[in-house]
Amino acid sequence: MSQKPADWTTGAEAILYQRCAACGGLQYFRRSFCVACGAQDPVEKRASGAGTVYAASLVCRAATPETRAHVPYNIVLVDTSEGFRMMAHGDNDLSIGDKVTARFVPFAGRLVPYFEKV
């Protein structure tokens, strides 16, 4: 079995998604099969980091002691230019419809995708 490419979940500055070779379906987070058709081993692709804000929620109360230093922080849903939707952190002033691009920042001891206006 070949080793999977690294992404932000393993500390690398990359957002990966999968495309099914059989049906063309897209999915984000990794699985060993296509959720649309069941075909095995979808192809890993690297996302550009470009997208549009679908939803935003400003967190004003820390969920854990590790996140207390970051309050307030914004959680956004982003429709990526590749066609999948993902949840991530973003600038506090982001609004629905804003065009964004991803960079990576430390948050509560982990490297996470962080979206900012283009």
Structural notes for this entry:
- By secondary structure, this protein is mainly beta.
- It has a domain at 50-117.
- The protein contains no helices and eight strands.
- The chain has strands spanning 16-19, 26-27, 43-46, 50-59, 73-80, 85-90, 99-107, 110-117.
- The strands form two sheets. It has a five-stranded mixed β-barrel with strand order 4-5-6-8-7. Strands 2-1-3 form a three-stranded antiparallel β-sheet, with no helix packed on it.
- A hairpin with a 6-residue loop joins strand 1 (16-19) and strand 2.
- The protein is globular, with a radius of gyration of 15 Å.
- The protein starts with 15 loop residues before the first strand and ends with a strand.
- The mean pLDDT is 94.
Shape category: globular
Separate helix tally: 0
Ends distance: 39 Å
Rounded mean pLDDT is 94
Query: Total strand count, please?
Result: 8
The major β-sheet equals: 5 strands, mixed, barrel
From the alpha-carbon coordinates, what is the Rg to the nearest angstrom?
Answer: 15 Å
Strand line-up in the sheet with most strands: 4-5-6-8-7
Report a brief summary of the structure.
The chain is mainly β.
What labels would you give this structure?
five-stranded mixed barrel; three-stranded antiparallel beta sheet; mainly beta; 8 strands; 118 residues
SSE topology:
Layout: E1 16-19, E2 26-27, E3 43-46, E4 50-59, E5 73-80, E6 85-90, E7 99-107, E8 110-117
